[in-house]
Amino acid sequence: PQLMDSQARGFSKLFSIVILMKDKMFLLNIQPYLADCLTKISRELQGYARVVHEGELRAQGSSDRAQRINQGFSSYSSRSLVDLTGKESIFAYLHAHFAFV
């Protein structure tokens, strides 16, 4: 899945959620449930990032965006998940989703 990012090349960042487990049979048995959970988490993260992205575009204005596209590169470094979603407690939120496993 992708998160919208007004400062990224292509205006989006790819992300992955990886689940590692010692018990492969348990992992196989809960795979349908995990797929549903991961879909829900991905959609929520994308929604948070969309809100931040739209706010940044409004703040920048269309002329700044056109200028940035014509520049061809960005001086910004990679942005954290906290910056992309606008949620200070995003890692606690993600941890809570996976703490049950």
Tell me what the structure shows.
This protein is mainly alpha-helical. It has one domain. The chain is 59% helix and 6% strand. It has 5 helices and 2 strands. The longest helix is centred in the middle third of the chain and has 30 residues.
Helices and strands in order, then pairings?
Blueprint: E1 2-4, E2 12-14, H1 24-29, H2 31-60, H3 62-71, H4 81-85, H5 90-98
Antiparallel strand pairs: 1-2
What proportion strand? 5-15%
Principal-axes shape call: elongated
Q: What is the count of β-strands?
A: 2
Question: Strand order within the widest sheet?
Answer: 1-2
Domain tally: 1
Profile the largest sheet. Answer: 2 strands, antiparallel
What's the mean pLDDT score?
A: 84
Helical run tally: 5
Would you tell me the structural class of the helices and strands? Answer: mainly alpha
The termini sit apart by 22 Å
- What is the CA-atom radius of gyration, in angstroms? 17 Å
Contiguous low-pLDDT stretches (5 residues minimum) are none
Helix content: 55-70%
> What is the ordering of alpha helices and beta strands?
EEHHHHH
GO biological process, one term: positive regulation of TORC1 signaling
Domain UDENN FLCN/SMCR8-type: 1-101
GO molecular function: GTPase activator activity
Protein name: Folliculin
What attributes does this structure have?
101 residues; mainly alpha; 5 helices
Put the structure in a nutshell.
By secondary structure, the protein is mainly alpha-helical.
